[in-house]
């Protein structure tokens, strides 16, 4: 008796329910602030944070006086986001939902943002359409993604060498960090698009420590390793640690993670 394969939403819920994303999220606070600042969020703006996670962007925008809505697929993420909002003493309206089918009317927001969140939505073209659809004409859409040449995609490329062939595998999330791909996905729905690269740094004692944190805290790597043969894991670890070493700064004990920030004005 065959069983239906899990939907993209079911797969995503499982991935982001594993590990400990709340321990990862603080590393990306500077990126969230960069995103909010770049899109000039100000008091009175209506703002949507898509795939909001634990609320980095939503709370940053709310502190500026914006009226903010945060949406995420994983209830546990929203619970942490609510706790963070209580600590920050800001009001945010939280919704459970998917980036490919946003439960909001056309043109409902002045600014729609996503900080390395929408990049995991399948299919990506649907996520792009939804970001634009819920943003008013003349409003701003802004989002970040790891660039294809940054550390997380580099690690992913090593891991994929040890995974069974999957002709139905989705596009790599890091394609959202390629300006050519971004222009193609958002198409003619925008009047102006600008790109900027920057980096966040993750403190680590060594490349091996970074790998250990990734494989215990990140649901992405936890799920990927489930499909790797036990006999292959030691050499996979060695190859991935060597790859991480290319991004490791020994003078600062940190790994640099480059991202692309995209900002567009909706037509």
If you had to describe this structure to a student in words, what would you say it looks like?
The protein is an alpha/beta fold. It has 11 helices and 8 strands. The chain has helices spanning 8-17, 21-24, 29-38, 56-63, 75-88, 124-133, 151-160, 179-186, 207-217, 219-226, 233-245; strands spanning 46-50, 67-72, 92-96, 109-115, 135-146, 190-203, 248-249, 254-266. Strands 1, 2, 3, 4, 5, 6, 7 and 8 form an 8-stranded mixed beta sheet that branches. The chain is globular. The N and C termini lie far apart (50 Å). The mean pLDDT is 95.
Helix content range: 25-40%
* Classification by helices and strands: alpha/beta
Net shape: globular
Question: What's the helix count?
Answer: 11
Question: Gyration radius, to the nearest Å?
Answer: 18 Å
Q: What order do the SSEs take from the amino end to the carboxyl end, as H and E? A: HHHEHEHEEHEHHEHHHEE
Distance between the termini: 50 Å
Q: Please, what is the average pLDDT?
A: 95
Q: Flag low-confidence runs.
A: none
In total, the number of strands is: 8
Share in β-strands:
15-25%
Sheet with most strands: 8 strands, mixed
């Amino acid at each position: 008796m065959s069983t239906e394969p899990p939907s993209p939403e079911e797969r995503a819920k499982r991935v982001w329910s594993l590990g400990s994303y709340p321990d990862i999220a603080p590393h990306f606070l500077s990126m969230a602030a960069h995103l909010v600042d770049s899109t000039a969020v100000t008091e009175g703006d209506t703002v949507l944070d898509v795939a909001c996670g634990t609320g980095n962007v939503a709370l940053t925008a709310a502190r500026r006086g914006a009226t903010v809505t945060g949406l995420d697929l994983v209830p546990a993420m929203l619970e942490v986001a609510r706790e963070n909002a209580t600590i920050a003493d800001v009001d945010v309206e939280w919704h459970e939902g998917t980036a490919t089918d946003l439960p909001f009317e056309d043109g409902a927001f002045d600014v729609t943002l996503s900080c390395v969140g929408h990049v995991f939505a399948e299919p990506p073209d649907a996520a792009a359409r939804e970001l634009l659809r819920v943003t008013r004409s003349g409003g701003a859409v802004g989002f970040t993604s790891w660039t294809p040449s940054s550390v997380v995609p580099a690690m992913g490329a090593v891991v994929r060498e040890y995974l069974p062939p999957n002709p139905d595998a989705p596009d790599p999330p890091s394609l959202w960090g390629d300006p050519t791909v971004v222009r193609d996905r958002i198409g003619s729905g925008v009047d102006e698009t600008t790109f900027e690269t920057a980096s966040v740094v993750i403190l680590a004692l060594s490349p091996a420590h970074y790998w250990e944190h990734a494989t215990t805290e990140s649901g992405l790597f936890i799920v990927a390793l489930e499909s790797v043969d036990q006999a292959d894991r030691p050499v996979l670890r060695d190859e991935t640690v060597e790859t991480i070493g290319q991004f490791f700064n020994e003078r600062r004990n940190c790994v640099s993670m480059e991202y692309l920030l995209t900002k567009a004005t909706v037509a």
